[in-house]
Amino acid sequence: MSILVNEAQRIFHLQNEYISYVMMVLPNGQLGQLYFGRKIHHRDNFDYLLEGSLRSHSALVPGVDRLFSLEHVKQEYPSYGNGDFRQGAVEILQGNGSRISHLVYEGYEIQAGKPSLPGLPATYVEDPSEAETLSVFLRDPLTQVVVTMLYTIYRDRSVLTRSVKIANQGEASVQVERAMSLCLDLPDADYEWMQFSGSWSRERFPVLRKLEIGIQAIESLRGHSSHQQNPFIILKRPSADEFSGEVMGFSLVYSGNFLAMAQVDTYDVTRVLMGIHPERFSWKLETGESFQTPEVVIGFSENGLNGLSQTFHDLYRKRLARGVWRDQARPILINNWEATYFDFNEEKLLKIASKAKSCGVELFVLDDGWFGARRMDNAGLGDWVPSLDLLPEGIRGLSEKVEALGMKFGLWIEPEMVNPDSDLYRAHPDWALHVPGRDSSLSRNQLVLDFSRPEVVDYIHGMIAKVIRESKISYIKWDMNRSITDCFNESLPADRQGEVFHRYILGVYDLYERLIREFPHILFESCAGGGARFDAGMLYYAPQAWTSDDTDAMERLKIQYGTSYGYPIVSMGSHVSAVPNHQVNRITPLKTRAEVAYFGTYGYELDLNKLTEEEQEEVRCYTQFMKDHRELIQFGTFYRLQSPFEKNEAAWMVVSEDRKEALVGSYRQLAKVNIGFSRLYLQGLDPDQLYEVDGQDRYYGDELMNAGLITSDASSCKVGEDVKPAYDFASRIYRIKAVD
Ligand code: GLA
User: Does the pLDDT of residue 718 top 90, yes or no?
Assistant: First the structure.
């Protein structure tokens, strides 16, 4: 890894074994982009990559060669208004009403390692030798606004991270109206764009389309990253597939409003922009103040989509997630939500917990409904005091009883919300986000607390920390069950209202940070009505997230498959739930439910007492299977093999780091009759290693990867010597083990 600088030509080359990123100071002083992609040789001068052309009607730059126009030149941090007509990366409103900036190169600095971003989540290093960071300083001579462009290149990863700091060193205040984290101009438009879209209970379904001239974008203006869109996009060459070809991914380490866009101009330059959504955003900078944008991680792979995903998985697992749980296999839990909803008392909970314990489950999680007047979703949110009528000895007593059973105890909270019918709201109605004089919109009977106000965050912290301190809590599920409306902070002046959405998220991050510091042993799982805040920002605080409220195995196949493009398996909360399924009413085999949920953190979301003895015995086997394989699943290399979006059959696999062990999950959505033969071409094995499949047949790695694993027999389920006919929603796990 190195950052090579040609000071005379003012060229920067960030390079490691995998990638090169080249920039130069342009003839007008702005910072230009020359190359990003597969590693190339270093040379002293890359200025040949600065293409110019004399074009009729182009806006020219005073005093610069007529071949040079901001209209077509590739830039690092452009602003609209002085020759570039594309979408800009930065816009700063000045006292006289102008929004035009001219950011001129001033200098640079290189440091070992990677600085943290104050108050924001970001990838990190554990040792300065893991990465190198380049800061490039740009100044607008008229306003004295200084922009610091931060670029970090990791030594052993095919990624580069970027973020931007904007500081006001002028004498007058300015208003930052747009501050994207990333602008990347690519020299052609021969890409397909992938986004991960959905809605409640069908999050992150991949959507693919060819880039065309014009703008294609995804966004969230919901105050959280959202069910609808995810702050992660991929650009792939049309010929690239899961296993080969060039792809790049852009992941925003942020949980609030965002915009991700690709604009293809008439000269085939593709501009990728990503960052906080400029709509409903502005940030006032008084003299001496600065604003830090969130970070974007750019990943690059020549090994197709799986290669790219693996790059993100490894980085997010090891250098985004933090804390004691980062490297530990996750506990197998049981959550009472779908078992009881709001209808529980201590006795009922302990009965669920004891049965779970007898089935090998390690952690009992009490979900919504344990506090204040919360008997339904219309009251009590905000009153984080245990309801003694349900739990006579409070959370303390219940947690002790669960521990006495030999299990750990976990608790659900939704700290950002308040029901109008709550003591908190009655005492502090102004603490909910609202516009004075207007009615606020309710969603799920609740309002959003104004986390942009530190006193609100302090108060909620006090209540929640008290419950945690008093009880034996090992796990917290932090929920967030509605989008933000009526976004207005009564304590801020008019010209700071554009700050509220971002300040809100900073408040959320602040509360997370305080809780994880005070209670470092607790495993946090984030949640937002299922997967509405499944983003890289959250993974910095909570190493796992509830993937979706849809717990049906067939739906989960798609949701987990789609989520795996950007996020590691170990971050996906996945549970076995009851049938008929509560979301889609489907009846799937218990075995299939388990075999889908294995590829995540694994747990249960039902009352095991309601299963037959035989089913409970099955559950014991599944729990044991997960215990035996969770290190491999959660910390191995994950491959998508066959997409449930494309075929009736779906498959994925994990391979251990030393390639001695692998697990393949193979699924069939609907039974078919008299079908063709089927094989799975495995990935990631050692071609010269002899492996045993399910402790029986032996094949070399190259056979399993090239000739394939025959899966035709999966269409019938062998029970002893009997062969059952094919059935819907079938699954099979193959265990692959190296033979010494
Ligand atoms: C959200 C979560 C669920 C559950 C409920 C409780 O919908 O996604 O898992 O916790 O809230 O109200």
Answer: no
Q: What is the pLDDT of residues 683-704, one digit of tens each?
A: 999 999 999 999 999 999 999 9
Separation of CA 482 and ligand 1 centre (Å): 11
Pairing of strands 363-366, 202-210: unpaired
- How far apart (Å, rounded) are the C-alpha atoms in residues 562 and 540? 21
Q: How many whole angstroms from 374 Cα to the centroid of ligand 1? A: 13
Catalytic positions are 479, 549
User: How much is the average pLDDT of 104-110?
Assistant: 98
Nearest-angstrom CA–CA distance, 339 and 724:
31
694 residue type, one letter: D
**Minimal-distance CA residue to ligand 1 atom 2:** 529
Pick from 382, 407, 391, 530: nearest CA to 473: 407
Q: Which ligand 1 atom sits closest to the C-alpha of 528?
A: 8
Task: Give, in order, the Cα–Cα distances in Å from 508 to each of 42, 119, 121, 172.
Answer: 43, 10, 11, 31
Ligand 1 mean position to 438 CA, how many Å?
A: 29
Calculate the alpha carbon distances from 449 to 417, 425, 440, 483, 506 in Å.
5, 9, 12, 12, 13
Average pLDDT of 117-140?
98
Query: pLDDT digit string (tens) for 613-649?
Result: 999 999 999 999 999 999 999 999 999 999 999 999 9
- Which of helix, strand or coil describes residue 308? helix
What number is the average pLDDT over the span 126-138? 98
Model confidence pLDDT, tens digit, residues 384-418: 999 999 999 999 999 999 999 999 999 999 999 99
Q: How far apart are CA 14 and CA 20, in angstroms?
A: 6
* Residue 715, pLDDT score: 45
- What distance in Å separates the CA atoms of residue 577 and residue 606, rounded to the nearest whole number? 5
Which residue from 549, 572, 601 has its CB within 8 A of the most atoms of ligand 1, so it is best to mutate?
A: 549
Structure letter (DSSP) for residue 386: B
State pTM to two decimals.
Answer: 0.97
- Express as a percent the part of the chain with pLDDT over 90: 96
Question: Which residue's alpha carbon is at the smallest distance from atom 11 of ligand 1?
Answer: 529
Query: For the chain, which domains are there?
Result: 3-319 (2.70.98.60), 333-634 (3.20.20.70), 642-738 (2.60.40.1180)
**What does the pLDDT read at residue 717?**
47
SS3 track for 443-509? ECCEEEECCCCHHHHHHHHHHHHHHHHHCCCCEEEECCCCCCCCCCCCCCCHHHHHHHHHHHHHHHH
Atom of ligand 1 nearest to the CA of 549: 8
Burial of 427 (0-12, 13-18, 19+ CB in 10 A): exposed
The residue contributing the CA closest to ligand 1 atom 6 is 368
Q: List the structure tokens of 279.
A: 């709509």
Residues flanking ligand 1, CB < 6 Å? 337, 367-368, 412, 479, 481, 527, 529-530, 546, 549
Centre of ligand 1 from the C-alpha of residue 643, in Å: 28
| 337, 411, 547: residue to mutate for ligand 1 pocket, most atoms within 8 A of CB | 337
Neighbours of 698 (CB within 10 A): 11
Over residues 426-433, the mean pLDDT reads 98
